[in-house]
Specification:
Blueprint (H helix, E strand, L loop, with lengths): L4 E2 L1 H4 L13 E2 L11 H5 L3 H21 L4 E6 L11 E5 L6 H21 L5 H9 L2 H15 L15 H12 L3 H14 L1 E3 H8 L4
Antiparallel strand pairs: 1-2, 3-4, 3-5
C-alpha cells in the first residue's frame, strides 16, 4: 500500500478541521521548505501559474457539468485578488445527486494539475506537493461529505480498495477526468484569455449544455 506523508508543519499547527488532515497528508513527500513558501517551491513563471490555475478550476467545472449539473460562472482572479481565497473559483449551482459526483468534483482540481504537469513536462515532486497542499479547501469539502453523509472520517492511508480512503477518491476522479480531458484543456485555455465566463458560455464551449 503506498505511503502517504505527514507534513510536520501541519502536525504542529492549530487544531481544527481545516488543518487535520486536509493539509497534513500528501502522497508526495514534502520538500524541506516551510509550507507558506509554496510559490517558491513550484517556481512557475507567471504565465505557467495562470494556466495551472485555469486547468485546476476548469477541471472542477467540467467534471461537475459532465455529471449533469450546472455552474453559474468560472473566474480567473486578477493578481492580488484574494476575495475568494484562491487564484480562481467556480460558482456551482445548487443540485442534488450521488455523493460521489461531488467528491470527484472537489478532487478534480488537484488531479488535473498533476496530469497537466506530467503531459507538458512540468512535473516535479515539489510541484506535485504544492498542488496537494493548496487543494486543502477542496479536500476539506470531501471530508465534510464523509462526516455528514456517512458518519465516517476520510482516511489517508493510500488504500485504493477502500471507498473511505482519499486514494480511492483520487482514482475515481482520474476516471472522471479521462473522457473530458480535452474539454478541460479547452476551457482552461479560453479562461486564460477571457478571465471570466458564465456557466452557459462554459457549457457551450465544452459541449455540455443541459
Amino acid at each position: 500500500m503506498p505511503s502517504w506523508f505527514a507534513n510536520s508543519d501541519a502536525i504542529a499547527a492549530r487544531d481544527g478541521a481545516e488543518w487535520d488532515p486536509w493539509v497534513r497528508y500528501t502522497r508526495t513527500p514534502p520538500p524541506s521548505y516551510d509550507w507558506e513558501c509554496t510559490d517558491a517551491v513550484a517556481a512557475y513563471t507567471p504565465e505557467e501559474q495562470t494556466l495551472n490555475s485555469s486547468v485546476h478550476e476548469a477541471a472542477h467545472a467540467v467534471v461537475y457539468m459532465a455529471a449533469g449539473y450546472q455552474i453559474g460562472h468560472i473566474v480567473l482572479h486578477d493578481p492580488g485578488d484574494g476575495s475568494y481565497g484562491g487564484r480562481a473559483h467556480v460558482k456551482y449551482l445548487a443540485a442534488s445527486g450521488p455523493w460521489l459526483d461531488w467528491a470527484v468534483t472537489c478532487a478534480a482540481g488537484e488531479r488535473a494539475e498533476d496530469r497537466w504537469m506530467r503531459e507538458t513536462g512540468r512535473w516535479s515532486s515539489g510541484r506535485a506537493w504544492v498542488a496537494e497542499r493548496l487543494a486543502w479547501r477542496d479536500r476539506s469539502q470531501v471530508g465534510a461529505l464523509y462526516r455528514d453523509g456517512h458518519n465516517r472520517e476520510l482516511s489517508f492511508r493510500g488504500d485504493h480498495d477502500d471507498w473511505g480512503d482519499y486514494a480511492w477518491v483520487m482514482d475515481r476522479t482520474d476516471e472522471a477526468l479521462d473522457p473530458v480531458w480535452d474539454q478541460v484543456l479547452a476551457l482552461a485555455n479560453r479562461l486564460v484569455k477571457h478571465r471570466r465566463m458564465s456557466g452557459d458560455e462554459a457549457a457551450r464551449l465544452v459541449g455540455l449544455t443541459p
